[in-house]
Design brief:
Elements: E1 8-14, H1 20-33, E2 37-42, H2 49-53, E3 66-67, H3 74-78, E4 82-87, H4 90-108, H5 119-122, H6 128-142, E5 148-152, H7 156-176, H8 179-182, H9 189-212, E6 218-224, H10 228-244, E7 248-253, H11 272-298
Parallel strand pairs: 1-5, 1-6, 2-4, 2-5, 6-7
Antiparallel strand pairs: 3-4
Helix pairs in contact: 4-6, 6-7, 6-9, 7-9, 7-10, 10-11
The protein binds adenosine-5'-triphosphate and magnesium ion.
Length: 300
């Protein structure tokens, strides 16, 4: 029997407030309406995917998405389109995964203290929740239940931390406790339990690293608004994604102000709103030109 085909994963990233949740949701709805089986997952702990969809989406650490059909044309749903939504509670995930992992290990190495560690203590480890969120997305995508998994990410800093962690974790681990030393010798029960735990985590993280750079499966969708500060951060994010080897499928400039040429802009009454509008229109053009240059430099 062949295993089910894994889903494509689209990561919506960008600075706070640019429209990631709105555009991730719009993309998910569009693809579901065209007959695909789509799951939208929020890994941002300040979830707003449910608000955009207009439904109650309680954050959960379980793989229990909510079926969202209300806005879709029933004829298209008959064509096989499905839209599910899930808001991941990464602290609840941490608790669930810790019980799954540490329980059996503590039973195997009863002299270790693994069984006494509370999951909340682990949340102090930097990045662990983001990494679990990403791991969960990978597992959901591998389940074969969906064709496309759309991820509504936290704003750039947290999302990039999430995406760089697999690489960073491996580097730190090798420096702190190289694999050949971890696995050599005859350790006591407590050390053996820790080594077994690290090996499990390390293997999972390596798989994540491989998945993230698999261009046939994972792509980033960078959202920005045509403002100088937002575009400057978007350019840095593009550079980071290129360095990580993550495919950038599209750069979406959102919330563009349209210049209405039927309107006479000169000799307007002095009003702050007109000044703001005129400045935004001109800043917008500069930002778009600079962005073109950055994209050219990165040869995207
Ligand atoms: N194209 C658009 N036209 C008008 N309003 C928009 C558009 N895109 C987004 N918005 C509005 O901008 C606000 C922020 O959008 P959204 O929540 O999608 O951004 P976000 O990047 O997910 O924010 P956060 O970083 O807080 O998660 C919302 O009020 C949304 O309705
Ligand atoms: Mg959002």
């Amino acid at each position: 029997m062949t295993s089910p085909a894994p889903a494509r994963i689209s990561l919506f990233v960008g600075k706070g407030g640019v429209g990631k949740s709105t555009l991730a949701t719009a993309t998910a709805v569009r693809d579901a309406a065209s007959g695909q089986r789509v799951l939208i997952v929020s890994t941002d702990q300040a979830h707003s995917t449910g608000d955009v969809l207009g439904i109650m989406l309680a954050p959960t650490g379980q793989r229990t998405p909510t079926r969202v059909l209300s806005d879709l044309d029933p004829a298209l749903i008959d064509a096989g389109g499905v839209l599910d939504a899930l808001a991941l509670d990464t602290l609840a995930l941490l608790e669930a995964r810790w019980v799954d992992t540490a329980g059996p290990l503590a039973a195997r190495f009863p002299e270790s203290d693994l069984g006494d560690v509370a999951p909340e203590e682990l949340s102090a480890l930097p990045g662990i929740q983001e990494m679990l969120g990403l791991h969960e997305v990978g597992e959901l995508a591998d389940s074969g239940q969906w064709d496309h998994v759309v991820v509504d990410c936290a704003s750039t800093a947290d999302a990039l931390r999430m995406l760089t962690l697999p690489e960073t974790f491996g580097l730190y681990l090798e420096r702190a406790w190289p694999r050949h030393r971890r696995l050599s010798g005859s350790p006591d029960a407590a050390t053996a339990a820790i080594v077994a735990l690290i090996e499990r985590v390390d293997a999972g993280i390596r798989r994540l690293g491989t998945l993230l750079t698999d261009r046939s499966r994972v792509s980033a969708h960078l959202v920005l608004t045509p403002e100088r500060v937002v575009a400057a951060e978007a350019s840095r994010t593009l550079g980071s994604l290129a360095l990580m080897g993550v495919e950038v499928a599209e750069i979406i400039v959102n919330q563009i102000l349209v210049q209405d040429d039927s309107f006479e802009y000169r000799n307007l009454p002095a009003h702050p709103a007109f000044d703001w509008y005129t400045e935004r229109i001109s800043e917008q053009q500069n930002v778009l030109d600079d962005l073109d240059a950055t994209i050219g430099d990165l040869r995207l």
